[in-house]
Design goal:
Elements (H helix, E strand, L loop, with lengths): L3 E5 L5 H10 L5 E4 L2 H9 L4 E10 L3 E2 L1 H9 L3 E9 L3 E4 L10 E4 L1 H6 L1 H4 L5 E4 L3 H11 L4 E5 L1 H6 L3 E4 L9 E8 L10 E7 L6 H11 L3 E9 L7 E8 L3 H14 L2 E8 L4
Parallel strand pairs: 1-2, 1-3, 7-8, 7-9
Antiparallel strand pairs: 3-4, 3-11, 5-11, 6-9, 6-10, 12-14, 12-15, 13-14
Helix pairs in contact: 8-9
């Protein structure tokens, strides 16, 4: 059987759209119900080529639990992609808006479309997945039900887009990481992700950030997260952009000297 990339969600989801943007429309996906299952499947080289996992959204922010999953896994970041999230109001073919009585979708998707939905008196029903909502509509053939999902879900299940791009904020992007059990260093790499824990002495974080800046490496993201099974201790996930690998190697080597724990999570080409 052809291997695929593990995703969280179902066929037609934004995770699958990210896979297609990266690897083409014919790229196969392995559907996982949770992010933990995604990581386990991505680690299993007998069934997958790795995984593609959402890590942050321009509106909702970082998915903190996924940082911990990544840090505890045996996976490396080998790429990234930014996907514009455009939500559609989807119905059975031939359905008019005045026939709709109920709208179903993931609670985050419903929230992203609140201005559009508030213009109508539809009943809102939360589900576990946008694409699964579209699949359930196709199977139930309920003319009075609409769902909020992406264009790919409508295409896969032969459904009608009754209102396009109904999300409230137009600039809504999700960043997805490409994960692999094998570390790689592409020639055009210009970005790295690093996890580190300071020694919790006064000024430790400031010294680490100063070191990064002095080595000519650009810090594009810094995410703090509690260290599991500790009391008020925090680790830091940093995304670094560089012009050449020598800058990164020098910065990382010195960072390792002044931090309690350091882990290079991946070196890859920045996605724009």
């Amino acid at each position: 059987m052809q291997k695929g990339h593990a995703i969280q969600g179902f066929e037609g989801s934004f995770h699958q759209m990210a896979v297609q943007k990266l690897f083409g429309e014919k790229a196969r996906v392995i559907q996982c119900s949770t992010f933990s299952e995604l990581v386990r499947s991505a680690e299993n080289t007998s069934i997958s080529n790795g995984g593609v996992m959402a890590i942050e959204n321009s509106i909702a922010g970082s998915i903190l639990a996924n940082y911990n999953l990544l840090n505890k896994s045996k996976l490396y970041i080998t790429g990234e992609v930014y996907l514009k999230i455009e939500q559609q109001l989807i119905t059975l073919p031939g359905v008019d808006l005045d026939e709709i009585e109920e709208v179903q979708s993931h609670p985050m998707a419903l929230q992203q479309c609140y201005e559009f939905l508030e213009q109508h008196s539809w009943k809102l029903v939360e589900t576990i997945d946008t694409a699964l909502s579209a699949k359930m509509l196709y199977e139930s053939q309920q003319r009075n039900v609409a769902v909020i999902a992406g264009k790919l879900a409508a295409k896969l299940y032969g459904l009608q887009i009754s209102a396009s791009n109904v999300n409230t904020q137009a600039n809504n992007y999700t960043r997805f990481l490409v994960l692999s059990p094998k570390q790689s260093y592409p020639e055009d790499a210009n970005k790295a992700s690093v996890y580190f824990e300071t020694d919790h002495k006064h000024g430790s974080l400031a010294r680490a950030l100063t070191l990064i800046a002095e080595r000519g490496v650009n810090l594009t993201k810094l995410q703090s997260i509690p260290v599991p099974e500790s009391e008020w201790l925090y680790g830091f996930y940093a995304d670094l952009e560089f012009d050449n690998t020598k800058e990164l190697e020098y910065a990382y080597a010195h960072l390792s000297e002044i931090t309690a724990t350091t882990k290079l999570q991946g070196i890859y080409k920045s996605g724009r």
